[in-house]
Specification:
The complex is a heterodimer. Chain A is 63% helix and 6% strand. Chain A has 5 helices and 2 strands. In chain A, strands 1-2 form a two-stranded antiparallel ribbon. The longest helix of chain A has 11 residues. The radius of gyration of chain A is 10 Å and the shape is globular. Chain B folds into 2 domains: 66 residues; 65 residues, no CATH class. Classes of the chains: A mainly alpha, B mainly alpha. At the A-B interface, helix 2 and helix 3 of A face helix 3 of B.
Amino acid sequence: MNNRIKELRAKYNLTQLDLAKKVDVRRETIVFLEKGKYNPSLKLAYDISKVFKLPIEEIFLF
Amino acid sequence: MNNKRKTLMITSVLVMAVIWGFIALEKGTDLFKGLDLIISILIIIIGVIALIGAFKRDKEKKKGLTLEDELSRLIKYKSGYYAYLWSMYMWLFIFLLKDKFPNVETMLGGGILLSATISYIAKYVVKKKLNE
């Protein structure tokens, strides 16, 4: 599963650390998410979508 | 690092040093030969890894990050499973080679140390697999 986290993070001028703090995960998790090595839980996907103010399906591409 | 944690770390290092001191007194230069040398090196490696981990966690805590999340939990569960499985084989080998050990204490102590080493290796392997 691909995602647009890196692109959106750049758009919102957020570092991996900032995003990690906002969604209450470790920075490592954001790294793995951006690389597409980890599929987030529904809760994490929802939290990320809230940060970027976009629906989940526009961030995570199936 | 908060004071409670700092005290705990200093106390464990001191206790370890005292125990080691007693063993060194009893064994003399034999401590740096053969199996005892391997065990000593393993203790140092595990201690250093644990300390590095503690400092890393502390650094993340200071940055305001959470110490455990869904991915770290997943890594913990998976590496726990592998560590358990590999440790079973390790103990099997240890019991097969039991005559090679000088005494039961060395055999059990070495086995416990190897189990700890295996758990770190399993964690490393699981993380590496996620990166592939």
